[in-house]
C-alpha cells in the first residue's frame, strides 16, 4: 500500500508542473494539506510515510521543473 501511495505522490508532484506550469512545490503543498489527517492516527509510521510522500512529491516537481527549464 505504501508503494502505491508513493507512486501517487510522485504523480501529484508532476501534475501541477506539467499541466498548469505551476511552481515545482505545488504538488507537495497538496500533500502537506492532507497530512494533518495523519495526526489523528498518532502513529510514528504514518508520520514517516507522510514525510516520505511529501519528499517524493517535492522531488518529482523539482526534477520535472528543472528538466523543462534545461530544454527551454
Question: Which key terms come to mind for this protein?
Answer:
4 helices; elongated; mainly alpha; 83% helix; 72 residues
Strand content: under 5%
| Rounded radius of gyration (Å) | 13 Å
* Mean of residue pLDDT values: 90
Helix percent reads over 70%
Please describe the biggest sheet, giving its number of strands, its sense, and whether it closes into a barrel: none
Silhouette: elongated
Walkthrough of the structure:
By secondary structure, this protein is mainly alpha-helical. It contains four helices and no strands. It has helices at 2-20, 26-34, 36-39, 44-71. α2 packs antiparallel against α4 (44-71). The chain is elongated and about 45 Å long.
Amino acid at each position: 500500500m505504501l508503494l502505491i501511495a508513493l507512486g501517487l505522490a510522485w504523480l501529484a508532484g508532476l501534475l501541477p508542473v506539467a499541466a498548469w506550469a505551476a511552481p515545482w512545490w505545488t504538488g507537495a503543498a497538496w500533500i502537506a494539506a492532507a497530512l494533518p489527517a495523519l495526526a489523528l492516527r498518532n502513529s510514528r509510521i504514518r508520520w514517516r510515510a507522510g514525510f516520505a510522500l511529501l519528499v517524493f512529491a517535492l522531488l518529482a516537481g523539482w526534477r520535472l521543473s528543472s528538466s523543462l527549464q534545461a530544454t527551454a
